[in-house]
Design goal:
- It is a single chain.
- Among the domains are: about 20-85; about 300-390, Alpha-Beta Horseshoe (Leucine-rich repeat, LRR (right-handed beta-alpha superhelix)), CATH 3.80.10.10.
- The longest helix is centred in the first third of the chain and has 30 residues, at about 55-85.
- It contains 13 helices and 13 strands.
- The chain is elongated.
- Strands 1-2-3-4-5-6-7-8-9-10-11-12-13 form a 13-stranded mixed sheet.
- It has helices at about 20-35, 55-85, 90-95, 100-105, 130-140, 155-160, 180-185, 205, 280, 300-305, 325-330, 350, 370-380; strands at about 110, 115-125, 145-150, 170-175, 195, 220, 240-245, 265, 290, 315, 340, 360-365, 385-390.
- With about 400 residues, it is an alpha/beta fold.
Length: about 400
């Protein structure tokens, strides 16, 4: 008696559940090969009839069956690999959440967009804790915004933060950063918001580097070291909507360089900005909100705004040089919904003429000694007036 001869039958990898036809073919080929070699003595096999050299041809047939099976099963394996999800190189790192460490040391982490993006607030973190907090921030995925405050924040802490590839918004307040950090910031071509409040070691010359931030939409600079020399660096910011230069050193001498920017909201409060810059403000095509609180503007500057009917908000608070001579220009700004005339030199008679501003919703006339009858007239004749502050 001859012993049965068993040959190993290749078993392919797992086949995708949706490959029904291929699955059936592979199963059939494996079964056929197994049956051929496990059917008994080789002499008893009658697969090809009474042809000569049965043993040689049966073996050849079996090898063909096995070969085709191997090819098909391998192909199924390739299909399975094709359907398998790809794993990115950063997936493992992104599973680590370092936000508890940041919160333990006094910071805040705010997640948005399904925990895919976050904002990190590092306000007044102790100097000894800064290295740990900075490292933890760098390990977080999707950091879009960082806020840092305090004199203990210098270039050492700020430089790694401003290099975060996903960073879109950066707020630095009362820090000791220098031009080195600004140079690094200038490499963040996708930065959309930059607030620098109280950075006395940054120079106007160093700020020239931000001209590369062409995606900027919101820029706020506070400090006398940010003067007129900064303005030419803004000329390429074609998407700039908000420009706030509160407490800066700007005077208006170089405002021509940014007169064509699409700025919607402009704040020049607490500066030495004077009448010389007002004609350029009047040329800003998209401007709707203007804050001139505590500037050096008087009637001549306000009159330069004549015809800016797109203005909806005008703050002239604490401008003693503004008198009744400006009223004709002001009432011509027919779309105004907010007006502040507090601590100007406008008389009660001038205030009474404001009834022409039919769209006005909020009016401040503080420190003008406006009598009650004038206030009552304003309320009666201005249908949209919701807030009258006297």
């Amino acid at each position: 008696m001859h012993k049965r001869r068993w040959l190993p039958v290749p078993v392919g990898p797992v086949i995708p559940h949706n490959s029904i036809f291929v699955d059936a073919c592979c199963r059939f080929l494996r079964w056929a090969a197994a049956a051929t070699f496990a059917s008994g003595p080789m002499e008893d096999i009658d697969v090809l009839g009474r042809l000569q050299s049965r043993r040689r041809k049966i073996r050849a047939f079996s090898l063909i069956v096995l070969g085709v099976g191997v090819i098909l099963v391998a192909g199924c394996g390739r299909d399975a690999r094709k359907d398998a999800p790809e794993v990115g190189p950063d997936d493992a790192a992104n599973t680590v959440d370092s936000s508890p460490e940041i919160q333990r040391l006094g910071g805040e982490v705010h997640w948005t967009k399904g925990n895919e993006r976050c904002a990190v607030y590092l306000n007044d973190i102790a100097a000894d804790d800064l290295p740990v907090v900075v490292a933890a921030t760098l390990s977080l995925p999707g950091v879009e915004e960082v806020r840092m405050t305090g004199a203990q924040v210098g270039d050492t802490a700020a430089l790694p933060i401003v290099g975060i590839p996903t960073l879109r918004r950066l707020r630095l307040t009362d820090t000791s950063i220098t031009d080195a950090t600004i140079a690094k910031v200038s490499q963040q071509g996708n930065l959309q918001l930059l607030h620098l409040h109280g950075a006395p070691d940054v120079t106007s010359e160093g700020m020239s580097a931000i001209e590369s931030l062409t995606a900027m939409k919101d820029l706020s600079l506070s400090g006398k070291n940010f003067d007129d020399r900064v303005l030419p660096a803004l000329t390429a910011m074609s998407q700039l909507k908000k420009l706030r230069l509160r407490g800066s050193g700007v005077t208006g001498d170089s405002f021509e360089s940014i007169a064509t920017l699409p700025v919607v909201d402009l704040e020049l409060a607490e500066t030495d900005f004077g009448n010389q810059g007002m004609p350029w403000i009047a040329k800003m095509p998209k401007l709707t909100k203007l804050n001139l609180w505590l500037c050096k503007v008087d009637d001549a500057g306000v009159i330069a705004l004549d015809g800016m009917t797109q203005l909806t908000s005008l703050n002239l608070d604490n401008l003693p040089g503004v008198t009744d001579a400006s009223i004709d220009t002001i009432v011509g700004l027919s779309e105004l919904t907010f007006l502040h005339l507090g601590k100007t030199s406008v008389s009660p008679e001038g205030v009474a003429r404001l009834t022409k501003l039919q769209e006005l919703e909020t009016l401040h006339v503080t420190n003008l000694d406006v009598p009650d009858d004038v206030l009552e007239t304003l309320r009666e004749e201005m249908p949209n007036l919701k807030s009258l502050v006297n």
